[in-house]
Amino acid sequence: MKTVHVADAWRASLAEQGLSELQDWWHLSTDWVEPPNFRRGGWSGVSRLRVPGPDGAETLLYVKRQAGQRRRTLTSGGRARPTYFQDFLALSTFRDCPRVQWVFFAEDDDRAVLVTRAPDGFVDLGTFAARVEPARLFAGLIAVTAALSALHRRRIQHGACYPEHILIDPETLRVRLLDYERWRYRWSVTAAAHADLDQLLRRAPFLDTRGRDTLLRTARLYAPRLTLTAPPAPQRVFHHA
Ligand SMILES: Nc1ncnc2c1ncn2[C@@H]1O[C@H](COP(=O)(O)OP(=O)(O)O)[C@@H](O)[C@H]1O
Ligand SMILES: [Mg+2]
């Protein structure tokens, strides 16, 4: 399977940079954001690149490269496609769901490249929690749950609902989600909400009981049947001298 998708707004600037084909991105330097992962018999890695955007201003892009990591899904017509295809599908079609902007996607048999734009000024949920006052964190958590509700109301489970995949603008509290590789439809709103919030709470040791409660109470506004109880916040260990 061979496909190339370029976001309309980016077509001219990418062409100018010589970044119109999978091959062009494939040969960029590999200053990986985190060590590449070797799973499913292949590998994938994420790096960053600064290029002039459609408005000419320098823009930060995240470049995901992958080889030999495929998955068969209903949405790929039962065919094994690179797992980044599933992410691209969500980013390009989930119109009303908060998500990072996609810039480029290409697939060539075993390889795939997916490029997204880093939203200016946004930080991940863990960074946000460490940086703001409790009242602001409280408001931010409501904004995060409202963002998740856009997926859950459509019975979509994000599937990798980790703090590092949730970006928030500390000024406006707007939220964008990323890494939709594992999204799937669930049979109910409750099931989608339960799975994602359970995952998030387990991965967010920085939230105290009030923070955990805020997420769950807000989620019950759109998923009243949600019976999930927050896993306890990890105990702080005090070392006495
Ligand atoms: N568009 C983006 N904006 C900001 N950060 C991003 C973006 N895309 C990826 N990242 C960062 O890179 C990390 C790895 O990207 P991710 O899409 O999660 O790849 P992987 O499939 O390898 O987990 C994310 O956890 C996040 O910190
Ligand atoms: Mg990830």
TrEMBL record:
Transferase listed as a keyword: yes
Keyword tags: Kinase, Transferase
Classification via Pfam families: Kdo
So which domain of life are we looking at? Bacteria
InterPro entries registered for this protein in UniProt: Kinase-like_dom_sf, Put_LipoPS_kinase_InaA
Entry keyword annotation includes Kinase = yes
A GO MF term: kinase activity
Name of the protein described by the UniProt record: Lipopolysaccharide kinase InaA family protein
